[in-house]
Amino acid sequence: MTRFLLRKAPSVFFVLFASSIIAFALPRLAPGDVAVVLAGENPDAQTIAAIREQLGLNKSPVLQYADWVGGLFRGDLGESFLLHRSVASLIGDRVGSTLELAVLSTLFVIVIGAGLGIMAGSARIGWVRALLDFTDSLFVAIPSFVVGLGLILLFGVFNRWLPVSGEVGVLQNPAIGIQYLVLPSLALALGPAAVVARFIQTEMATMRKAEFVDLAVSKGASRRRITFRHVFRNSLGSAVVAVGLQVGHVLAGAVVIEAIFARNGLGQLAVTSVQSRDFTVLQVLILGAVFVAVVCQLFTEIILAALDPRIRLGE
């Protein structure tokens, strides 16, 4: 394990370094000046210059980047230009909402993806397999925001079964909180779940042609035992890889889903920061999303090695 982490450390640091440059540069490449926004209507040049000096925007981009990265290493994420609050406190107030959404969405991805993948990989009747393939393709093709709007109409307008906007913390009231989470989590999870199902289906089709499966059939093993004990069990590696790859999709989709379902999470904070050009908040959110994706990818490789003894982390 230690050898594996040491071997991965250079690439992780390189990815985070490159991502920090992109996260720093992208918000500043957008048209407009945050000092003009903060100065209000009809500002004079002296007021704008004073604001730029106060915020350190009169420094060169290299010095601004160095100050920001230095603050990150000290645990200082900076201060919001617009709200005059620390970025850490803003993220801390909203991270719980996004974390709840991401966790339940990931659970849906695993359960739905595994279920569809196993059924599609085991179906022997042509029209059943075609129906499952069509379902996978449909979930992959439809954007998450369209799925979210459809779920709102179906479960919140035509049938008032679940709430469609706002949120209640799961820790505060588990029963009500889950009700507020179901629709946005499903909207966020169906697309990635279909991708996972495709991975599992393809791997199971390959595994069914393996010699150990033929041996199990010759010994008289039941179809159910062959599917779960031999085929699906040896296809878990692809499932783990697929779930790990979909973490980035879940994080990106959370921005739109939180806006549609009026959730006060990090995605909504990112949208507000873009609109107000509050790039001190936005750059931390971008780098944080990359960091979470990198950590999830590392866990994916560790789990994959634990499932498959043919893989050795240090090799």
From TrEMBL:
Q: Which domain of life is it from?
A: Bacteria
Q: Where is the ABC transmembrane type-1 domain?
A: 95-303
Q: Subcellular location, in the record's words?
A: Cell membrane
| A GO CC term assigned to this protein in UniProt | plasma membrane
Any one GO BP annotation for this protein: transmembrane transport
Q: What does the record say about its membrane topology?
A: Multi-pass membrane protein
Spans traversing the lipid bilayer: 12-30, 101-126, 138-158, 178-200, 239-261, 281-307
Give the primary localization class. Answer: membrane
Alphabetically list the UniProt keywords: Cell membrane, Membrane, Transmembrane, Transmembrane helix, Transport
Q: What is stated as this protein's family in its record?
A: Belongs to the binding-protein-dependent transport system permease family.
Recorded protein name is Peptide/nickel transport system permease protein
| Organism of this sequence | Kribbella caucasensis
Q: What is the lineage of its organism?
A: Bacteria, Bacillati, Actinomycetota, Actinomycetes, Propionibacteriales
